[in-house]
Amino acid sequence: FWKFSTFSNPNPLPWLNPLFRIGSKRRLEEDDMYKVLPEDGSKRLGEELQSYWDQEVEKATKELRTPKLTKAMIRCYWRSYAVLGVFTLIEEMIKVIQPVFLGKLILYFESYNPDNAELYEAYGYAAGVSLSTLGLALLHHLYFYHVQRAGMKIRIAMCHMIYRKALCLSATAMGQTTTGQIVNLLSNDVNKFDEVTIFLHFLWVAPLQAAAVIGLLWQEIGASCLAGMAVLFFLMPLQTIFGKLFSKYRSKTAAFTDSRIRTMNEVVSGIRIIKMYAWEKPFAALVNDVRRKEISKIMSSSYLRGLNMASFFAANKIILFVTFTVYVLVGYKISASRVFVAVSLYSAVRLTVTLFFPAAIEKVSESCLWSFSLMQKFLLLDELVKAHVPLTQEDKKEASVEIQDLICYWDKVSSLLIFTSLLQSSLLSTVLEELPAEKGVIKVKGELTYASQQPWVFPGTIRSNILFGKELQPQRYESVLRACALKRDMELLPDGDLTVIGDRGATLSGGQKARVNLARAVYQDADIYLLDDPLSAVDAEVGRHLFEQCICGILKEKPRILVTHQLQYLKAADQILVLKEGHMVARGTYSELQQSGVDFTSLLKKDEEEEGEKEEAPRSPRNRTISQNSVRSHSSSVLSAEPVHTMAEETRTEGTIGLRMYWKYFRAGANVIMLILFVLLNLLAFYILHDWWLSYWATEQRKLDFHSTNITANGTNGTNTNQELNLDFYLGVYAGLTGATIIFGFMRSLFMFNALVSSAETLHNRMFNSILRTPVRFFDINPIGRILNRFAKDIGHLDSLLPWTFVDFIQVFLQIIGVVAVASSVIPWILIPVLPLLISFLFLRRYFLRTSRDVKRIESTTRSPVFSHLSSSLQGLCTIRAFKAEERFQQTFDAHQDLHSEAWFLFLTTSRWFAVRLDGMCSVFVTITAFGCLLLKDSMKAGDVGLALSYAVTLMGMFQWGVRQSAEVENMMTSVERVVEYTELESEAPWETQKRPPPDWPNRGLITFDKVNFSYSSDGPVVLKNISAMFRPREKVGIVGRTGAGKSSLISALFRLMEPEGKIIVDGVLTSEIGLHDLRQKMSIIPQDPMLFTGTMRKNLDPFSQHSDHDLWKALEEVQLKAAVEELPNKLETELAESGSNFSVGQRQLVCLARAILRKNRILIIDEATANVDPRTDELIQKTIRDKFKECTVLTIAHRLNTIIDSDRILVLDAGRIQEYDAPHVLLQNQNGIFYKMVQQTGKAEVASLLQTAKQVSRAQETGELILLAGPAGADRRGFKHTST
């Protein structure tokens, strides 16, 4: 259908008409868009530019210089782009010729003689004026359409290259950049190409046009034109200086924006922890601090923009004033034809010289210097090069991994202590070639697949996550689901395995993510399986099932390398490798290692017989074991499943933006008095009086000349012959009007920018505060990309684009009203054709906006998946590369880009469709005015004709620009709408209330649950049902239950992450009556996923700066991190990498423990904190908890029974209800109880060990009880705790 879109067609872009018809009837959907053209496809464009970039890199390497991205781009695009210069050259030539026709026409009126036969000539000039407006209309849009499409192509190609590069970044390179920076490249920096291509040709067209205009002006008004041109050329460097300054501010702003988005990314990712720690205020301070700096730069650059725009609108008036003042003072007399030819020529050149030329310089400097350098720097980062050796059938049969004398470094620069959990993962990273070997040999025969330690899922269905690009083989797929204990979950999900999971798998629980992650690896029919601790995130029963049915079941014929801390599985291993502090300590079978006497055996369970002999020997209360379930193959149906949050659809509002939204927007930045002042300024800064005075002056001069001529002709001699106009008066008024226009114009511009940027600041703060105060549920059902899109793209619009567009629209709109007012005052009957034109314009605008708004909204919503796909790919980089899925992910990215391109391309073409029709209307208006003047030639004054026609001609580009700006304002107001939507989110309870608990509360740590029900949303299922329980002061309580039993929900209820029904009382205070911060600050939690934030180590430990250095070092020493932190370059002031990624999981968990030590609270909650850490770290954590928190009430959620068997009491949950709650020893007496069964499932040796510990704890408690009973009356009977042994 492209062949029909030529602009010679009387119906330009006819293929868009069906789309507009659909858009006028109903809301447009993605299916309504046209498929992207083959030559605009992401893959094709990206590969083309990539090949030029590769050539440039190769060439630069030979010439020993840095590769230049600009060179690659120029080589790729210069031919197609250079051709477009012809359009703009012809367009600018017409702009220069048109005033000549206009001058001749006015001259006809000046020397008007009814008997003269020059009328046909005048009609010719009128036709010239009309046809040149029509030519301008067509050429202008043809040029703009093509340059914008060129910009789009470069942007698409760049995005393709950035994503391709992101997929092959090495570990070192990942340390030099962050997800936030890469997302920012894609969301902000590449958009510069859309802007720079528009103006680039004006760098050479503008000087040519200026030269032509000077030539024509010299003919009209002689040397006086040089004064005007001098002002014009003085304004040009001034605008360029503005451009340079603007660029400087822009780069500073960009750095702050980067920083703000990065912090926001962390806040949104870690919101659960921030809320539990009650750390909203320090994070708010952090974001507000960056935002304040960002806004101060934005405000400065907006003032510059304001001055720039005001000077652009005032330029014409200043130039004319200077030109005609010189012209008159030199002794010439003013005439209408000279005035209005000069007016038209100046306005033709002014746009090019003072707007497009400086814009070209500004965009080129901004794009080339800043954005290009960022992209170039990113494209030059280190890549991970994997040796792809083709595998023979022989290799596949004898699959193996061989390692000799291996030495590796994660990052040679930082000397961090790496714990064993990271070491084992490092070994797998080396096998996967993620970590380059410094020395030694590693040989892999066979195809690898990998399940990562931190489970990774990408946005899509559960099925697509498991298949990961492989064909669906129903039988194999079913057996994998069964082996990975996912069958039951699939049955309970609303859409089974076709349920869509959101960003970072937000809709799944940790256990479900881990099982999907494992299922993905198992489904790939590989030769060697690398499994990085897949059992740590699931409970004992499921863990045993996965080990037996999956690792030793479905995979039993394949070589498997399993990293684990769960030692009870070691007997099943053919070969065991023990790593300690980066060295291999031992290697061999289970029995060989036991006989070797390596320190390793102290970690291992003793054989069952040994266990029997030493039954009576006292055992350290904590030895790592795991509650296990010897589940047979059928039992996967018995495994309990968990609730799943489904993702909310992104809202897309319909219809027009109401006046209320504009009112909210203005009121956010200005009060009512300021708004009234704004209206007054607009009226005062009316530009028309200035030109009207020139016209009036020329007419008076003409009358005087005519009068003088008549007197002379009649031969009368008198004093009247030398009569002249009072120059002082006319010049004085002219100067006054010029000055007033300029002053009020500047005031209006600055005032508006100030108000609109203030609005952006206020709305951002409201949105951020609203996000901080909204319940956690909001983050579970909204992907990170969606929330960040509001803070990046939408706030970006509010900060810079919307204020500029709005001010521009207001100024243009006032000028349009002025033009029509002038024309109708000169030729009153012109209002007759203006009326139908106005009606058809209003209809067209409404017709266009319905479709355009939908296209713009679709463009916004199709942009989100591009960012989501990028950030989820960065999170799962290791997995994607291990599965060799880079190509497929690149294709998915290209598909997301193509969908966005469809919307963007429609946005471009619909804008042109509308603009061409508007300019068509304007040329009708110009034609009517031109010929109308000739029809009424007898009653017309030359000055009036000049004023009406020169104004009508300026309407050409201006009218469609004004209307498109009004549509653009309305489109951008959708960003305001989206931000306002997030400022009105549901809020959780207040952080502080009138009722404050006593300062030392809670001083005992008594927690009572009284008939508590809990649900994650008002319409969601109840996950805790009628819970009543008491946790006594200083008591250690273990909370167990299968996955989905409600263990974490109990903690959520205690922290009021959603409001529970019923009563929770802590030390006599009803928690629902006090503020959330008063509650949450008084309880410490060590969470399941340890979270560190970008910032210093000090900020991570103590964001409120409440503790001395001595306290901080002491806490670090107690968790054995002091040495690691001392080795950091700036110790406590060292900036951590994004999400603390330069620490291992174990170390991050220890930092969380140090935070808990510093808080010195009476209540500590441990949420499966040791699930992902090695035995050594676990033992350290358990020991610290026993020593440091012996005066506290400790609630521990655990999958592993050995971590809680020495608790005072154990609470057993099942399906949200309390099933059992008593001392472990008592629970083990009840052979029908759930806890007894859980213990029995762990194997004989483990059962004996657990029983032994339970007895010891029981005996210790009895002894303590007796000792205390002999104490004074009223002694606290629980005071013996853990001291009496």
TrEMBL record:
UniProt-annotated stretches for the region Disordered: 607-645
One GO term (biological process): lipid transport
Gene3D superfamilies: ABC transporter type 1, transmembrane domain, P-loop containing nucleotide triphosphate hydrolases
One Pfam family, short name: ABC_tran
First-listed, main subcellular location of the protein, grouped into a coarse class: membrane
Entry keywords, A to Z: ATP-binding, Cell membrane, Chloride, Chloride channel, Endoplasmic reticulum, Endosome, Glycoprotein, Ion channel, Ion transport, Isomerase, Lipid transport, Membrane, Nucleotide-binding, Phosphoprotein, Repeat, Translocase, Transmembrane, Transmembrane helix, Transport
PROSITE patterns in UniProt: ABC_TM1F (PS50929), ABC_TRANSPORTER_1 (PS00211), ABC_TRANSPORTER_2 (PS50893)
Residues in ABC transmembrane type-1 domain copies: 82-365, 672-971
Cofactors demanded by this protein: Mg(2+)
Biased segments, Low complexity type: 627-640
Domain of life per record: Eukaryota
GO cellular component terms given for this protein: apical plasma membrane; basolateral plasma membrane; chloride channel complex; early endosome membrane; endoplasmic reticulum membrane; recycling endosome membrane
Subcellular location: Apical cell membrane; Basolateral cell membrane; Early endosome membrane; Endoplasmic reticulum membrane
Entry EC number(s): 5.6.1.6, 7.6.2.2, 7.6.2.3
Domain ABC transporter: 379-606, 1007-1240
Residues spanning the membrane: 81-102, 122-145, 166-186, 198-218, 225-242, 309-330, 668-689, 729-757, 801-820, 826-844, 914-936, 945-963
Reactions catalysed: ATP + H2O + xenobioticSide 1 = ADP + phosphate + xenobioticSide 2; leukotriene C4(in) + ATP + H2O = leukotriene C4(out) + ADP + phosphate + H(+); tauroursodeoxycholate(in) + glutathione(in) + ATP + H2O = tauroursodeoxycholate(out) + glutathione(out) + ADP + phosphate + H(+); cholate(in) + glutathione(in) + ATP + H2O = cholate(out) + glutathione(out) + ADP + phosphate + H(+)
Membrane topology: Multi-pass membrane protein
GO molecular function: ABC-type glutathione S-conjugate transporter activity; ABC-type xenobiotic transporter activity; ATP binding; ATP hydrolysis activity; intracellularly ATP-gated chloride channel activity
Family per similarity comment: Belongs to the ABC transporter superfamily. ABCC family. CFTR transporter (TC 3.A.1.202) subfamily.
Subunit-structure text: Interacts (via PDZ-binding motif) with SNX27 (via PDZ domain); this interaction accelerates MRP4 internalization.
PANTHER family xrefs: ATP-BINDING CASSETTE SUB-FAMILY C, ATP-BINDING CASSETTE SUB-FAMILY C MEMBER 4
Protein name in the entry: Cystic fibrosis transmembrane conductance regulator
Annotated source species: Cyprinus carpio
Gene name for this UniProt entry: LOC109055432
